[in-house]
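Entry type: protein chain
Record version: 2
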Amino acid sequence: MPRKRAPEAISEDEAVGRPELDEAPRIQPVPEPEPRRDIVVAGASAGGVRAFRDLVANLPRDLPASIFFVLHVSPEFPSFLPDVLSMAGPLPAVHPSDGDPIRHGRIYVAPPDMHLLVERARVRVVHGPRENRHRPALDPLFRSAAMAYGERVVGIVLTGVLNDGSAGLAAIKSRGGITVVQDPEEATFSAMPRNALKRLPVDHVLKVRAIATLINRLSREPIPRKEERPVSENMEKETRVAYLDPAVLDTEKKPGRPSAFSCPECHGVLWEINEGEMVRYRCRVGHAYSAESLAEAQGESVERALWSALRVLEERISFLKRLKEDASHRGVSTLADHFEEKRAEAERNAGFVRDALLRNPKE
């Protein structure tokens, strides 16, 4: 049986004009899946464990989104929040390691004393500078997610005190993401939700169960196609500060302008950043404060200074008493009277400091 001749290779030019080749079906590129809001970042302070537990209890097992939680916790003790959340709902919760891949259907919880950040396709866990006196803090997480994923981000502020998260929600909104605040009437501590509502037009104000329903819906609905909003220079710089990036820390061009105030933590100059209704402060090495958290930190600095002053005065009183007794034993009455006068003055000053401490100098 004669062999069939193998078809000869032909060039693209030779193919032109040959109907059987012109009409051959062409392979069409596979369209990219439409983006959905599948990056959910949420944070809470006081009362947050209950809020997180109620939220995850109402999420479905097949949720096509990744969830990132920040809770203000003490750096001195281990956190069992992932265990609590894994038992409360169908999704597994973990303390991630730096560089872990981001997967749908998982909850990533910030470990104690570490910032949780989001990059493209991976989680970062870093020991960066405190923001609003906390590490972990909401603002670094929200800001990093906004920078990496833009309109795919849903940012949520739950129960808590002061206003961590407000600046982060503003960053998410500036990139086209969705902003959500727990109904202050439901929140155990309403300050964080109320402060966020004062500072920006939030997209949704909902009770926790309704927030879970919203997350499920948004993660399944395609995002309407529109021009991507750019990352601002300040957002990029402030996100890199969390990594202690020397290219950002060493530059003389800081966000905002130098203020008359010093950082309560490192005592460096604070730069004042004005963002509409929001005023924030950040020092050279990255410590950041809202106006309210700066006032709180200053109050704590005053208290530390008063306790230090009281210690020095009590030591001075004791030492002057010893000097007076020594002078009296040697029969030098003039010197003994001098030391007694100084001791009495120190005693009066110590009384003023005690009174200030008893009145709570942080108020």
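Comment: Residues 1-22 have pLDDT under 50 and may be disordered.
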